[in-house]
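Class, look over these structure tokens:
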Amino acid sequence: MSDIPTKEIGELLDIVSSKLPNLIKEIHATIFSEEGASQLGKAVAAFYKNLMEAGMSQEDAVALTRDYMQTLSAITNQFKG
């Protein structure tokens, strides 16, 4: 006899599959809205500012900020549909 709660796992997967499409749509709408773009810009600017205030060279701060922005872009591109 198996100790794996297959009935409960099946019920959980049913719930997730019914709610996931709406969750993805809401995330997409948030990320690609004017407000989302504004928040993204503020996050990138704050990241750069913190690096500079920590004493990092401008060249290194720009490089790391570019990497940060590329990472954020890669994540948001996963939600494009």
Remarks:
- The two ends are 43 Å apart (CA to CA).
- Helices lie at 6-31, 34-53, 58-77.
